[in-house]
Amino acid sequence: MFENLSNRLESAFKLLKGQGQITDVNVATTMKEIRRALLDADVSFKIAKDFTDAVREKATGQNVLNSITPGQLLTKIMHDELTALMGGTAKEINLSGRPSVVLMSGLQGSGKTTFSGKLALRLKGKGQKVLLAACDIYRPAAIDQLHTLGSQIGVEVYSEPGNNNAVQIAQNALQKAKAEGFSVLIVDTAGRLAVDEAMMVEIAAVKQAIQPTETLFVVDSMTGQDAVNTAKAFHDRLNFDGVILTKLDGDTRGGAALTISFTVGKPIKFVGTGEKMEALDVFHPDRMANRILGMGDVVSLVERAQEAYSDEEAKKLEAKLRKNQFDFNDFFEQIQQIKKMGNIKDLMGMIPGVGKAMKDLPVDNDAFKSVEAIIQSMTPEERRKPEILSGSRRKRIAKGSGYDIQRVNQLIKQFEDMQKMMKMMNKMGKGGKGMKMPFGF
């Protein structure tokens, strides 16, 4: 995500190295490179030009303090302008009604149904009683997909198989939500392969009938500038309240994320960052600007960790660490918690400096594959008592896991080193406090 844009911007900033002041001459060259980088990221020429003009106006002639470089000053200006371009501040979903009604809109294949499930799971985790309504009466298996997602996350789904009136289904779902005390109704609607009049008439009628608290436009960020154009067409008809960008973890150039909010005048509210139902983040323009400029996003990383790990689980783990009872069962559980947080390379990109340092390394979600296979090849007793892992046991584990004995020995050695480190920290009086996730494998 934004990797190419980040690299291009970094190269542009290097043009100012060694300069004592940002002048018309040196800033012009830099702005030219930044404009090229934005165009390459699928930002429209007009927006790219207006953006660089605004940066140039603020940067030209500014004196550079002794404590910072021209590149650093320009980075600060770029950060502020990128943040403004992407909407300025984060905007959460509006849940002011009882029940609150959230209407989904967008083209077919944009990820409306999956996002509906993700949003339902997120709201359920915040104590809301959620009802999903299946109003996509055209796409084959759309209703079944929503029921499958609902079953997966433990959220009820309302549907009327055989009824071809989306407006009526939405109205009936709203009546059910009111009668049975649901706090949120999420209405999944049909999409098309392109914007057409029939689709627009139908979704406008659904909106008129149920008067949603929030109307959201869901768009596939990998469609680039086309996503911006489609958003404008929908907004002209629906006047939606916010944008959802899906598949932001894909091989996207980022143009949609950079300009869609500016173009339609509505905020990006959420971004999908993976296939898992938990892979949904509130969109923070300032944090995204940090990531684009290679500054990381530690706050979002911490928030993901907190969502993946409950306070109760943290207390149990801390108690084990204090007593030096951390075993392979705990180790395996920690890996599952890390995987819940999202794509590994994406997580690393949130740590300042790490993403840039590891940009060329082959890091993927299979990084834990060997560790999981080896631990799962151990007996319950071996997981609880790593000290009994003799040579013969290790050979059996290697054979069962499909990895050689050297990999098994390496993992056990790393685990033992981690145990020693924890024991040493306990002796120092820290008790392992704050160590929620192991590392070093």
> What's the domain count?
3
C-alpha geometry: globular
- Provide the CATH architecture of the largest domain: 3-Layer(aba) Sandwich
Give the mean pLDDT.
77
Q: Provide a count of the helices.
A: 20
What series of H and E elements makes up the topology?
A: HHHHEHEHEHEHEHEHEEHHHHHHHHHH
Largest sheet: 8 strands, mixed
> Spans of 5+ residues with little confidence (pLDDT < 50)?
64-68, 430-441
Q: Please name the CATH topology of the largest domain.
A: Rossmann fold
Counting DSSP E segments of at least 2 residues, the number of strands comes to 8
DSSP helix fraction: 40-55%
Q: What assembly state would you assign to the polypeptide chains in this entry?
A: single chain
Strand order of the largest sheet: 3-2-4-1-5-6-7-8
- Classify the beta-strand content into a percent band: 5-15%
Q: Tell me the distance between the termini.
A: 25 Å
Which helices and strands appear, and what pairs or packs with what?
Elements: H1 3-14, H2 24-40, H3 45-59, H4 70-85, E1 100-105, H5 112-125, E2 130-135, H6 142-153, E3 156-158, H7 166-179, E4 184-189, H8 197-210, E5 214-220, H9 225-238, E6 242-246, H10 255-264, E7 268-272, E8 280-282, H11 285-292, H12 298-308, H13 311-322, H14 328-340, H15 344-349, H16 354-357, H17 369-376, H18 380-384, H19 391-401, H20 405-427
Parallel strand pairs: 1-4, 1-5, 2-3, 2-4, 5-6, 6-7
Antiparallel strand pairs: 7-8
Structure characterization notes:
Mean pLDDT is 77; it is low at 64-68 and 430-441. With 441 residues, the chain is an alpha/beta fold. The chain is globular, with a radius of gyration of 25 Å. Helix 1 packs antiparallel against helix 2 (24-40), helix 4 (70-85) crosses helix 11 (285-292) and helix 5 (112-125) runs parallel beside helix 6. The longest helix is centred in the C-terminal third of the chain and has 23 residues, at 405-427. Strands 3-2-4-1-5-6-7-8 form an eight-stranded mixed β-sheet, sandwiched between helices. The protein is built from 20 helices and eight strands.
